[in-house]
Amino acid sequence: MALIECRFYSEVLGLSTSMHVILPQQTTSQIGMNNMARGTRHPVLFLLHGLSDDDSIWLRRTSIERYVAELGLAVVMPQVHRSFYTDMADGGRYWTFISEELPALARSFFPLSHDRADNFVAGLSMGGYGAMKLGLRRPDAFSAAASLSGALDMAHHFMNWEDPTQRTPEYDLIFGKDDISGTPNDLLWLLEDCDRSPGPKPLLYQCCGTEDFLYRDNVTFREACSRTSLDLTYEEGPGGHTWDYWDAKIQDVLAWLPLKKR
Q1: Of 119, 141, 120, 118, nearest in space to 131 by CA
Q2: What does the alpha-carbon distance between residue 105 and residue 142 come to, in Å, rounded to a whole number?
Q3: Cβ of 27: how many Cβ atoms within 10 Å?
Q4: Which residues are bridge partners to 8 per DSSP?
């Protein structure tokens, strides 16, 4: 495998930013690794970070490079700060960046497949929200989306229904001051919109630990998805909002991905 730290300029964000990229490499003599490459254009997983992390975190906290070696799968890990993968009300246009500019730039820099069937997205916590948003809003571009312990009911968190006086000002900077229920920033609304829209539908995967503070979000999302025709694989079990859980579950996500047979 090749590991690349890529620093580049984003026209959409108006600033220099970064991504880490894992590229498949066919090898026969590397000790302890069985690397595989599928061809000239690699299938790719866009792997998204959480609220307090950056584009290096999946490499630092998991063995993602080793896990994808035998799959011939490229991995693109972008930096989006605390944006919730959203065109912020007071900040950068991170939705436009992640959904349009980043994939195009990554394909211009690296030999990545343009085929929808070869493009997948996954993420944890805030990144789980971003992954489902990409899968549901851009089913033409991504064939599968996976959330690990995702913040999947942001309309609830944004309004802080239990105690509206505790609503965080940071959400206003990201989403604006109006309720996001029933908008493209509301994943529950996006489930219905994607279901009733013509065109391809993404395969969805969702997991969360039962001790996770976002477990309620995940149950709500699962129940909402059950009222649609979308194909959701759901897993829950003991676990919290921790890297030991995500290191284990990303391996399940990789096994679930609809990769073409060699």
Answers
A1: 120
A2: 16
A3: 14
A4: 17
**Residues written for the chain:** 262
Question: Measured between alpha carbons, how far is 218 from 204 in angstroms, rounded to an integer?
Answer: 13
Structure-block tokens of residue 172: 């206003």
Please classify residue 151 by burial: count the beta carbons closer than 10 Å to its beta carbon, then call 0-12 exposed, 13-18 middle and 19+ buried: buried
Q: Encoding tokens for residue 217?
A: 């979000």
Please name the residue ranges forming H helices in the chain. 57-61, 64-69, 94-96, 102-109, 126-137, 154-159, 169-175, 187-196, 215-226, 243-256
pTM over 0.90: yes
Question: What are the Cα distances from residue 112, in Å, to 43, 163, 207, 258?
Answer: 6, 46, 27, 16
DSSP SS3 for 6: strand
DSSP-assigned letter for residue 46: E
pLDDT in tens, 53-94: 999 999 999 999 999 999 999 999 999 999 999 999 999 999
